[in-house]
Every structure is written in structure tokens, then in C-alpha cells.
Amino acid sequence: MAEEKHHHLFHHHKEHEKPVEAVYSETTYGSDGAGGYYKETDAVGVYGIPNEDYENYEKEKKEHKHKEHLGEMGATAAGAFALYEKHEAKKDPEHAHRHKIEEEIAAAAGVGAGGYAFHEHHDKKEAKKEEERAEGKKHHHLF
Asked: In the record, which residues are listed under signal peptide (predicted)?
């Protein structure tokens, strides 16, 4: 056995071959989504995505991540306030009705904030998929 073979599932690189790095060019070609093509002369950044587009994708993902965290904090705060009001309703029987109403409002606000966080999480995933589509990665939907 003069030449030793390695069988791997994914990285099929021979030892003397190096993987292709990011390619930089002055001309980019793309599709407008309606079957037409365009040619743009601009500096190209990482993964063959124009620098401006790549920065926009990164900015969009970061923005959705930030908003998702704000929604999570809002849900946590509203839940904590609802628990506090529940405790106050038991502790202060004279104003129990008022505390129960405030508890219900806080619980509804918590559900709304949780829904907002879930919505932003979905938007963050969508922005990531858009970036991967622009990079040329393929998504295989089996089911």
C-alpha cells in the first residue's frame, strides 16, 4: 500500500490540495430573482457576497437578536410582576380585586412579550437563511 486512502464523509480533500478560500473580484454576477441576470462591478467580500450585502445581513441578524432578547426580558419582567401581584392579592385582602386585575394584565403582557420574542427569533432565523442563500449554501428539505 504505497498510497494510503482515508475515507471521510464530508471533507474530501487530498493532502496536497488546499481548500478554496474566499474569492475576491471586481465583478459579480447574480440573479434578480425573476430569471434575469445582472453584472455588478464592485469589490466582493467574504463568500462571494458583496461587502455591503454581507454587512446588511449581519446587521439584520444582530438587530433581530437584540429585539428577541428585549422580548424575553419583557416576558420575564411581566411574569415576575404577575407573581408579585398574586402575592399582594393574598397579602392585602382589602384590595384583592385590584391586585387580581393587575395580575391578569401583567400575565397578558407577559404572553404578548413572549410572542414578540418568538416572532423576532423567527425573523432572526429567516435573516440567517437569507444570508446562507446569498452565500450559495443549499437547503435540503426532506420532509
From this structure: none
